[in-house]
Amino acid sequence: MKKVCYFTSKNENDIRVFHKECISLVNNGYDVTIVCPNATDKSVQGVKIIGVDYPYISDFDRFIKMPKILYEKALSFDADIYHFNDPASIPYGVKLKEMGKKVIFDVFEDHPSMWMNRGTGIKGLVYKLIGLFYKRYELKQCKKFDAVLVCYHWTKDRISKVNKNVELVLNFPIIDRNAVRERLVRKSNHVNLCYAGTIADAWNIPTVIDAINMVDGVSFNLAGWSSTDLINRMKCQKGWNKVQFLGKLSKDEVIRKVYDRSDIGVALYHYSPLCKGKVGNMSNNKLFEYLLMGMPVICTDFDLWKEVVEKNKCGICVNPSDVNAIAEAITYIQEHPEEAYQMGLNGQKAALTKYNWDSQERILLSVYENILK
Questions:
Q1: What is the pTM of this model?
Q2: Which side of the chain, N or C, has fewer Cβ within a 10 Å radius?
Q3: Domain of 342, in residue numbers
Q4: Is 325 exposed, middle or buried (0-12, 13-18, 19+ CB in 10 A)?
Q5: Could you give the CA distance from residue 82 to residue 362 in angstroms, rounded to a whole number?
Q6: What are the pLDDT digits (tens) for 14-26?
Q7: What distance in Å separates the CA atoms of residue 223 and residue 246, rounded to the nearest whole number?
Q8: If 0-12 CB within 10 Å is exposed, 13-18 middle and 19+ buried, where does residue 270 land?
Q9: Could you tell me the CATH number of the domain that includes residue 80?
Protein backbone atom coordinates (compact mmCIF):
# COMPACT_ATOMS: atom_id res chain seq x y z
CA MET A 1 0.00 0.00 0.00
CA LYS A 2 1.54 3.31 -1.10
CA LYS A 3 1.85 5.98 1.58
CA VAL A 4 0.61 9.50 0.82
CA CYS A 5 1.26 12.54 3.02
CA TYR A 6 -0.74 15.70 2.32
CA PHE A 7 0.64 18.71 4.20
CA THR A 8 -1.47 21.85 4.16
CA SER A 9 -2.35 25.05 6.01
CA LYS A 10 -6.02 24.24 5.39
CA ASN A 11 -8.05 22.93 8.31
CA GLU A 12 -8.64 19.23 8.84
CA ASN A 13 -12.21 19.42 7.51
CA ASP A 14 -11.46 21.24 4.25
CA ILE A 15 -13.88 20.14 1.54
CA ARG A 16 -11.37 19.71 -1.29
CA VAL A 17 -8.41 18.43 0.73
CA PHE A 18 -10.13 16.05 3.13
CA HIS A 19 -13.60 15.22 1.85
CA LYS A 20 -12.67 14.98 -1.82
CA GLU A 21 -9.01 14.25 -2.47
CA CYS A 22 -7.94 12.36 0.66
CA ILE A 23 -11.13 10.32 1.03
CA SER A 24 -10.95 9.39 -2.66
CA LEU A 25 -7.36 8.20 -2.22
CA VAL A 26 -8.19 6.12 0.87
CA ASN A 27 -11.18 4.55 -0.88
CA ASN A 28 -8.86 3.49 -3.69
CA GLY A 29 -6.25 1.75 -1.60
CA TYR A 30 -3.80 4.48 -0.52
CA ASP A 31 -2.51 4.95 3.04
CA VAL A 32 -3.21 8.66 3.58
CA THR A 33 -2.02 11.08 6.27
CA ILE A 34 -2.92 14.78 6.46
CA VAL A 35 -0.61 17.13 8.36
CA CYS A 36 -2.36 20.41 9.20
CA PRO A 37 -2.27 23.14 11.88
CA ASN A 38 -3.88 22.79 15.31
CA ALA A 39 -5.78 19.54 14.66
CA THR A 40 -6.26 16.72 17.16
CA ASP A 41 -4.51 13.53 16.09
CA LYS A 42 -7.11 11.00 14.98
CA SER A 43 -8.31 8.80 12.14
CA VAL A 44 -11.46 9.80 10.25
CA GLN A 45 -12.89 7.63 7.47
CA GLY A 46 -9.53 5.94 7.10
CA VAL A 47 -7.56 9.21 6.80
CA LYS A 48 -4.96 9.77 9.53
CA ILE A 49 -5.06 13.41 10.67
CA ILE A 50 -1.95 14.76 12.39
CA GLY A 51 -1.94 18.22 13.90
CA VAL A 52 1.03 20.55 14.41
CA ASP A 53 0.95 23.28 17.02
CA TYR A 54 0.67 26.66 15.31
CA PRO A 55 -0.09 29.57 17.69
CA TYR A 56 0.97 32.37 15.33
CA ILE A 57 -1.36 34.77 13.51
CA SER A 58 0.75 37.18 11.44
CA ASP A 59 1.16 36.85 7.67
CA PHE A 60 4.93 36.61 8.17
CA ASP A 61 4.51 33.59 10.42
CA ARG A 62 1.98 32.03 8.05
CA PHE A 63 4.29 32.31 5.05
CA ILE A 64 7.61 31.61 6.78
CA LYS A 65 7.11 29.55 9.95
CA MET A 66 4.09 27.40 9.13
CA PRO A 67 5.46 25.78 5.93
CA LYS A 68 8.60 24.66 7.76
CA ILE A 69 6.60 23.23 10.68
CA LEU A 70 4.31 21.34 8.32
CA TYR A 71 7.23 20.06 6.24
CA GLU A 72 9.21 18.77 9.20
CA LYS A 73 6.25 16.82 10.53
CA ALA A 74 5.36 15.50 7.05
CA LEU A 75 8.94 14.36 6.47
CA SER A 76 8.77 12.14 9.56
CA PHE A 77 6.22 9.88 7.84
CA ASP A 78 8.59 8.90 5.01
CA ALA A 79 5.72 8.76 2.49
CA ASP A 80 5.99 7.58 -1.10
CA ILE A 81 4.04 10.59 -2.40
CA TYR A 82 3.88 14.08 -0.91
CA HIS A 83 0.97 16.34 -1.87
CA PHE A 84 0.80 20.03 -0.90
CA ASN A 85 -1.15 23.14 -1.92
CA ASP A 86 0.45 26.22 -0.29
CA PRO A 87 2.69 28.42 -2.48
CA ALA A 88 4.85 29.08 0.58
CA SER A 89 5.57 25.33 0.77
CA ILE A 90 7.08 25.17 -2.73
CA PRO A 91 10.70 25.22 -1.42
CA TYR A 92 9.89 22.21 0.75
CA GLY A 93 8.29 20.41 -2.17
CA VAL A 94 11.55 20.93 -4.03
CA LYS A 95 13.52 19.55 -1.06
CA LEU A 96 11.36 16.43 -1.09
CA LYS A 97 12.05 15.97 -4.81
CA GLU A 98 15.79 16.23 -4.10
CA MET A 99 15.32 13.37 -1.61
CA GLY A 100 13.83 11.23 -4.37
CA LYS A 101 10.19 11.53 -3.30
CA LYS A 102 7.21 11.81 -5.63
CA VAL A 103 5.70 15.30 -5.22
CA ILE A 104 2.38 16.80 -6.35
CA PHE A 105 1.68 20.54 -6.15
CA ASP A 106 -2.04 21.32 -5.91
CA VAL A 107 -2.58 24.89 -7.19
CA PHE A 108 -5.87 25.99 -5.59
CA GLU A 109 -5.80 29.54 -6.95
CA ASP A 110 -4.16 31.43 -9.79
CA HIS A 111 -1.88 33.32 -7.42
CA PRO A 112 -0.17 35.63 -9.95
CA SER A 113 -3.59 36.94 -11.01
CA MET A 114 -4.61 37.44 -7.38
CA TRP A 115 -1.55 39.45 -6.45
CA MET A 116 -1.13 41.41 -9.66
CA ASN A 117 -4.68 42.75 -9.38
CA ARG A 118 -4.67 43.50 -5.67
CA GLY A 119 -4.70 46.99 -4.15
CA THR A 120 -4.16 50.42 -5.67
CA GLY A 121 -1.46 53.07 -5.67
CA ILE A 122 1.91 52.20 -4.15
CA LYS A 123 0.50 49.11 -2.43
CA GLY A 124 -0.98 47.92 -5.72
CA LEU A 125 2.40 48.38 -7.42
CA VAL A 126 4.10 46.31 -4.72
CA TYR A 127 1.56 43.51 -5.12
CA LYS A 128 2.01 43.59 -8.89
CA LEU A 129 5.76 43.19 -8.52
CA ILE A 130 5.20 40.31 -6.08
CA GLY A 131 2.84 38.70 -8.59
CA LEU A 132 5.34 39.04 -11.44
CA PHE A 133 8.14 37.60 -9.30
CA TYR A 134 5.99 34.72 -8.10
CA LYS A 135 4.83 33.90 -11.63
CA ARG A 136 8.43 33.38 -12.74
CA TYR A 137 9.36 31.55 -9.55
CA GLU A 138 6.34 29.23 -9.80
CA LEU A 139 7.19 28.23 -13.37
CA LYS A 140 10.82 27.58 -12.48
CA GLN A 141 9.89 25.29 -9.60
CA CYS A 142 6.85 23.56 -11.14
CA LYS A 143 9.02 21.91 -13.79
CA LYS A 144 10.60 19.88 -10.94
CA PHE A 145 7.40 18.30 -9.62
CA ASP A 146 5.99 14.94 -10.71
CA ALA A 147 2.55 16.45 -11.25
CA VAL A 148 0.70 19.75 -10.85
CA LEU A 149 -3.06 19.92 -10.23
CA VAL A 150 -4.83 23.16 -11.11
CA CYS A 151 -8.30 24.69 -10.76
CA TYR A 152 -8.28 27.13 -13.69
CA HIS A 153 -7.92 26.54 -17.41
CA TRP A 154 -5.44 29.39 -17.86
CA THR A 155 -3.29 28.14 -14.98
CA LYS A 156 -3.04 24.82 -16.79
CA ASP A 157 -2.07 26.57 -20.02
CA ARG A 158 0.70 28.49 -18.24
CA ILE A 159 2.23 25.64 -16.22
CA SER A 160 1.93 23.12 -19.06
CA LYS A 161 4.74 25.05 -20.76
CA VAL A 162 7.19 23.69 -18.16
CA ASN A 163 5.56 20.48 -16.89
CA LYS A 164 3.97 17.80 -19.06
CA ASN A 165 1.89 16.36 -16.21
CA VAL A 166 -0.57 19.16 -15.42
CA GLU A 167 -4.21 18.23 -14.86
CA LEU A 168 -7.33 20.31 -14.30
CA VAL A 169 -9.14 18.95 -11.22
CA LEU A 170 -12.28 20.96 -10.60
CA ASN A 171 -14.08 21.46 -7.31
CA PHE A 172 -17.38 19.88 -8.38
CA PRO A 173 -19.71 18.74 -5.56
CA ILE A 174 -19.76 15.27 -4.09
CA ILE A 175 -22.95 13.42 -4.97
CA ASP A 176 -24.96 12.77 -1.84
CA ARG A 177 -27.78 10.52 -3.02
CA ASN A 178 -29.69 11.13 0.22
CA ALA A 179 -29.71 14.88 -0.49
CA VAL A 180 -30.92 14.64 -4.10
CA ARG A 181 -34.60 15.55 -4.22
CA GLU A 182 -37.27 14.89 -6.81
CA ARG A 183 -39.01 18.23 -7.07
CA LEU A 184 -42.58 18.87 -8.18
CA VAL A 185 -44.00 21.58 -10.39
CA ARG A 186 -44.47 24.66 -8.25
CA LYS A 187 -48.16 25.39 -7.62
CA SER A 188 -47.76 28.75 -5.87
CA ASN A 189 -46.92 32.05 -7.54
CA HIS A 190 -44.58 32.75 -4.64
CA VAL A 191 -40.92 31.84 -5.23
CA ASN A 192 -38.06 31.45 -2.80
CA LEU A 193 -34.54 32.33 -3.90
CA CYS A 194 -31.55 31.01 -2.02
CA TYR A 195 -27.87 31.52 -1.44
CA ALA A 196 -25.71 29.54 1.02
CA GLY A 197 -22.01 30.16 1.54
CA THR A 198 -19.67 33.03 2.26
CA ILE A 199 -21.70 36.23 2.07
CA ALA A 200 -19.49 38.87 0.51
CA ASP A 201 -19.78 41.82 -1.85
CA ALA A 202 -18.13 39.65 -4.51
CA TRP A 203 -21.31 37.54 -4.64
CA ASN A 204 -23.50 40.63 -5.20
CA ILE A 205 -25.93 39.73 -2.42
CA PRO A 206 -26.97 43.39 -1.89
CA THR A 207 -27.81 43.54 -5.60
CA VAL A 208 -30.03 40.46 -5.24
CA ILE A 209 -31.81 42.13 -2.32
CA ASP A 210 -32.45 45.22 -4.46
CA ALA A 211 -33.82 42.95 -7.20
CA ILE A 212 -36.27 41.06 -4.97
CA ASN A 213 -37.56 44.41 -3.74
CA MET A 214 -38.74 45.02 -7.34
CA VAL A 215 -40.69 41.74 -7.64
CA ASP A 216 -43.88 40.76 -5.78
CA GLY A 217 -44.25 37.28 -4.35
CA VAL A 218 -40.55 36.66 -3.72
CA SER A 219 -38.48 35.84 -0.64
CA PHE A 220 -34.80 35.09 -0.17
CA ASN A 221 -33.35 32.30 2.01
CA LEU A 222 -29.86 33.52 2.88
CA ALA A 223 -27.37 31.47 4.90
CA GLY A 224 -23.68 31.79 5.63
CA TRP A 225 -21.02 33.86 7.33
CA SER A 226 -20.58 37.57 6.67
CA SER A 227 -18.88 40.61 8.13
CA THR A 228 -20.87 42.75 10.55
CA ASP A 229 -20.44 45.73 8.22
CA LEU A 230 -22.04 43.97 5.25
CA ILE A 231 -24.89 42.56 7.34
CA ASN A 232 -25.67 46.04 8.68
CA ARG A 233 -25.60 47.50 5.17
CA MET A 234 -27.97 44.83 3.88
CA LYS A 235 -30.36 45.37 6.78
CA CYS A 236 -30.72 48.97 5.62
CA GLN A 237 -31.92 47.93 2.17
CA LYS A 238 -35.62 48.11 1.33
CA GLY A 239 -35.73 44.47 0.26
CA TRP A 240 -34.38 43.15 3.57
CA ASN A 241 -37.92 42.48 4.83
CA LYS A 242 -38.08 39.70 2.20
CA VAL A 243 -34.88 38.05 3.45
CA GLN A 244 -34.81 35.15 5.87
CA PHE A 245 -31.27 35.33 7.23
CA LEU A 246 -30.29 32.00 8.77
CA GLY A 247 -26.65 32.63 9.63
CA LYS A 248 -23.98 29.98 9.36
CA LEU A 249 -25.39 26.44 9.03
CA SER A 250 -23.98 22.94 8.81
CA LYS A 251 -24.08 21.13 5.48
CA ASP A 252 -27.13 19.08 6.55
CA GLU A 253 -28.90 22.21 7.79
CA VAL A 254 -28.23 23.99 4.49
CA ILE A 255 -30.00 21.16 2.65
CA ARG A 256 -32.98 21.03 5.05
CA LYS A 257 -33.44 24.72 5.84
CA VAL A 258 -32.31 26.34 2.60
CA TYR A 259 -32.26 24.12 -0.48
CA ASP A 260 -35.35 22.07 0.38
CA ARG A 261 -37.32 25.29 0.97
CA SER A 262 -36.16 27.16 -2.13
CA ASP A 263 -37.12 27.32 -5.80
CA ILE A 264 -34.20 29.19 -7.39
CA GLY A 265 -30.48 29.19 -6.66
CA VAL A 266 -28.56 32.44 -7.21
CA ALA A 267 -24.82 32.44 -8.01
CA LEU A 268 -23.93 35.97 -9.07
CA TYR A 269 -20.19 36.24 -8.60
CA HIS A 270 -18.69 39.46 -9.92
CA TYR A 271 -16.36 39.84 -12.89
CA SER A 272 -12.89 39.55 -11.38
CA PRO A 273 -9.25 38.91 -12.27
CA LEU A 274 -9.61 35.34 -10.99
CA CYS A 275 -12.37 34.89 -13.53
CA LYS A 276 -10.52 36.71 -16.32
CA GLY A 277 -13.38 39.19 -16.45
CA LYS A 278 -16.31 37.49 -18.18
CA VAL A 279 -14.54 34.21 -18.89
CA GLY A 280 -15.32 32.75 -15.46
CA ASN A 281 -13.99 29.58 -13.91
CA MET A 282 -15.35 26.12 -13.23
CA SER A 283 -13.81 25.67 -9.81
CA ASN A 284 -16.45 27.42 -7.73
CA ASN A 285 -19.00 24.75 -6.92
CA LYS A 286 -21.89 27.02 -5.91
CA LEU A 287 -23.56 26.78 -9.31
CA PHE A 288 -23.18 23.01 -9.41
CA GLU A 289 -24.58 22.50 -5.90
CA TYR A 290 -27.78 24.25 -6.99
CA LEU A 291 -28.00 22.08 -10.11
CA LEU A 292 -27.57 18.94 -8.03
CA MET A 293 -30.46 20.07 -5.82
CA GLY A 294 -32.75 20.29 -8.87
CA MET A 295 -33.21 24.07 -8.82
CA PRO A 296 -33.14 26.38 -11.83
CA VAL A 297 -30.32 28.89 -11.43
CA ILE A 298 -29.82 32.59 -11.97
CA CYS A 299 -26.08 33.03 -12.41
CA THR A 300 -23.37 35.28 -13.77
CA ASP A 301 -23.06 35.31 -17.55
CA PHE A 302 -19.50 34.00 -17.49
CA ASP A 303 -18.58 32.32 -20.77
CA LEU A 304 -17.84 29.03 -18.99
CA TRP A 305 -21.06 29.12 -16.96
CA LYS A 306 -23.18 30.09 -19.97
CA GLU A 307 -21.86 27.02 -21.75
CA VAL A 308 -23.16 24.84 -18.91
CA VAL A 309 -26.46 26.64 -18.30
CA GLU A 310 -27.49 27.32 -21.89
CA LYS A 311 -26.38 23.94 -23.21
CA ASN A 312 -28.35 22.14 -20.51
CA LYS A 313 -31.24 24.67 -20.42
CA CYS A 314 -31.13 24.84 -16.63
CA GLY A 315 -31.35 28.55 -15.81
CA ILE A 316 -30.76 32.16 -16.83
CA CYS A 317 -27.40 33.95 -17.07
CA VAL A 318 -27.23 37.69 -16.36
CA ASN A 319 -24.82 40.53 -15.67
CA PRO A 320 -24.30 40.13 -11.87
CA SER A 321 -24.49 43.90 -11.28
CA ASP A 322 -27.63 44.52 -13.33
CA VAL A 323 -30.52 44.78 -10.87
CA ASN A 324 -33.14 44.95 -13.63
CA ALA A 325 -31.78 41.87 -15.39
CA ILE A 326 -31.84 39.90 -12.13
CA ALA A 327 -35.41 41.03 -11.39
CA GLU A 328 -36.49 40.05 -14.92
CA ALA A 329 -34.90 36.61 -14.55
CA ILE A 330 -36.73 36.06 -11.25
CA THR A 331 -40.01 37.16 -12.80
CA TYR A 332 -39.56 34.85 -15.80
CA ILE A 333 -38.97 31.79 -13.64
CA GLN A 334 -41.84 32.84 -11.37
CA GLU A 335 -44.26 33.13 -14.29
CA HIS A 336 -43.21 29.88 -16.01
CA PRO A 337 -43.47 27.11 -13.37
CA GLU A 338 -43.51 24.24 -15.90
CA GLU A 339 -40.40 25.51 -17.63
CA ALA A 340 -38.75 26.16 -14.26
CA TYR A 341 -39.47 22.56 -13.28
CA GLN A 342 -37.85 21.30 -16.49
CA MET A 343 -34.83 23.57 -15.91
CA GLY A 344 -34.40 21.95 -12.50
CA LEU A 345 -34.60 18.45 -13.98
CA ASN A 346 -32.13 19.32 -16.72
CA GLY A 347 -29.62 20.79 -14.29
CA GLN A 348 -29.88 17.89 -11.89
CA LYS A 349 -29.30 15.38 -14.69
CA ALA A 350 -26.23 17.33 -15.84
CA ALA A 351 -24.84 17.43 -12.29
CA LEU A 352 -25.46 13.72 -11.70
CA THR A 353 -23.85 12.66 -14.96
CA LYS A 354 -21.02 15.15 -15.46
CA TYR A 355 -20.53 18.04 -13.05
CA ASN A 356 -19.71 16.06 -9.90
CA TRP A 357 -16.68 14.94 -7.90
CA ASP A 358 -16.80 11.40 -9.34
CA SER A 359 -15.64 12.76 -12.69
CA GLN A 360 -12.76 14.63 -11.04
CA GLU A 361 -11.81 11.73 -8.79
CA ARG A 362 -10.98 9.70 -11.89
CA ILE A 363 -8.54 12.41 -13.01
CA LEU A 364 -6.93 12.57 -9.55
CA LEU A 365 -6.45 8.81 -9.43
CA SER A 366 -5.00 8.70 -12.93
CA VAL A 367 -2.39 11.29 -11.90
CA TYR A 368 -1.35 9.13 -8.94
CA GLU A 369 -1.26 5.98 -11.05
CA ASN A 370 0.87 7.65 -13.72
CA ILE A 371 3.55 8.98 -11.38
CA LEU A 372 3.90 5.58 -9.70
CA LYS A 373 4.58 3.72 -12.95
A1: 0.89
A2: C
A3: 191-353
A4: middle
A5: 19
A6: 999 999 999 999 9
A7: 5
A8: middle
A9: 3.40.50.2000
